[in-house]
């Protein structure tokens, strides 16, 4: 009887302790999956595409319209047959107006394809420092169909500018190409995907436009300069010679104002006071002060204080000339916008 009790107790202990221990040693294979293996599986379908470009022309660079045109060759190198990037790439910041792909060929182990592309590209030009403004314009390439999980760009070697590329008023230089992820915070209405955002690989070609000459400054403001000079020369005319004295000053104000309208028409709408507007405001302000001082000088002559009137004219011409030059140097050296 005692032996049966001992055997029953031993069987109970075996069930209580041995079975759970056995269950712990039999682990679900999915629970022990290597995280690195999981990452590799997620990117197994990702195709690396080497991309480059040779820019032939940059034309119609328009800060006012916020656009420029580009003519270039682009190329792609990749392995496998699951993608055809030369047919599916797009400019994220522009519109391709003409695409002429060449037949696909092989470059060693890589598929190789090129296309001649003409496009209009959009860019928000910062004109606060016009006409001494520098810019970095960009060409942003993305695949129109494949997300970053399916296709990722790599900047290829050989990307460059043709030596004949020029843009009037700027020196042109190609900067370092780059690749980054661009997130579109939308599922484009495809709710079944379960993704709240789409990530695409973006290949960017930056091109710098740098002012290296004061020629544009002179061409833009020679009328304003001439208007100020004429306004100051009016001080050499006697204040009681009304037609000549005040005609020169008032005419100078209208000339400077007209020049301001012409320059503003060539720039985009902005709430900031640009360098061009600052230079024109200085010109109009100096001419207005010259007219005000002419009235003061005329009143002195009416009081028969001719010597005081002549002295006022001489000092006003000198001081206003110095102030005009100094203020222009200040706004060109210091960004007051």
UniProtKB/TrEMBL annotation:
An annotated Gene Ontology molecular function:
extracellular ligand-gated monoatomic ion channel activity
Membrane topology annotation? Multi-pass membrane protein
Q: Which residues cross the membrane?
A: 216-237, 244-263, 275-295, 315-334
User: What keywords were assigned to this record?
Assistant: Membrane, Signal, Transmembrane, Transmembrane helix
Region forming the signal peptide: 1-23
Question: Where in the cell is the protein located?
Answer: Membrane
Gene3D superfamilies xref list: Neurotransmitter-gated ion-channel ligand-binding domain (2.70.170.10), Neurotransmitter-gated ion-channel transmembrane domain (1.20.58.390)
Q: List the InterPro entries hit by this protein, alphabetically.
A: Neur_chan_lig-bd_sf, Neur_channel, Neuro-gated_channel_TM_sf, Neuro_actylchol_rec
Which GO CC terms are listed, alphabetically?
A: membrane
Q: Does the keyword DNA repair apply?
A: no
Q: What is this protein called?
A: Neurotransmitter-gated ion-channel ligand-binding domain-containing protein
Task: Say which species the protein is native to.
Answer: Paragemmobacter straminiformis
The uppermost taxa in this organism's lineage are: Bacteria, Pseudomonadati, Pseudomonadota, Alphaproteobacteria, Rhodobacterales
